[in-house]
Structure formats: C-alpha cells, structure tokens
Design a protein that fits this description.
This protein is mainly β. The chain has strands spanning 3-7, 10-12, 18-23, 38-44, 50-56, 63-65, 73-78, 83-88, 97-104, 120-122, 125-129.
Length: 131
Amino acid sequence: QLQLVESGGGLVRPGESLTLSCTVPSTAPSGFIFEKNAIGWFHQAPGKEREGVAFISNESNVRNFAESVKGRFTTSRDNAKKVAYLTMSSLKPEDSGVYYCAACPYGMSCYLIRRTNYDYWGQGTQVTVSS
C-alpha cells in the first residue's frame, strides 16, 4: 500500500509562512502514476475531524481551497519531480495541527476535497503556530 511522505512542518509564529512538501517514496508501486493523480491537502486540528484545505488537479490547471485558507494558502506541484507543495502564509494559531497530503486518481471528483475520494495518504506532518 502506497504511503505518501509529507515534510516541512514545524513551529512558527503567527503571521509567518511555511511550505509543506508531499513526495512519492521510492518504494511506491510501479502502477502508481503521480501525474495522473490529483493531490489534496488536509488539516486535522487536535480533537477535530480531518478537513480538506487545498486541491490541485493532476495538471495543475485547477485549484480549490477551503474558505478558511483562501488568500493565505497556495498549492503547486512538479510532476517531473513527483512532489506537491502547500505554501501557507499569514499563519494563525487555528492553523495548527497535522497536515496530510493525499492522492486521488478520480480526477475532478476530488475537487471538493472530501476524504472519501482520496485513495493514498501520507503519515502527516505537524504544524504549530504559536507565539
């Protein structure tokens, strides 16, 4: 079973920025084709449900963001390097939590960033926003 790898989390102060990465491990099954998968980013705050915050289509031509992060978060990907990024700016304490990336092979059905449409997940990376 494929598990994506997130990195880049850490402790930052309110108002600062952070970029998370999502990569495909070298152990990934040969049948997994990164550039055929949309990527979603999810945030799970302590004691809360995991919620989708960002979506990028497989060819980067469509993006979607949760209202809570619009204007502050962006997402990009480099299919040649098999990596996706979540750049978070103007961070707030409520942005703290574990961030997960997930891959969806079902195209635009993943646009609304709902967990059920995403087949492959990472282990998550912790982001803490605190003064």
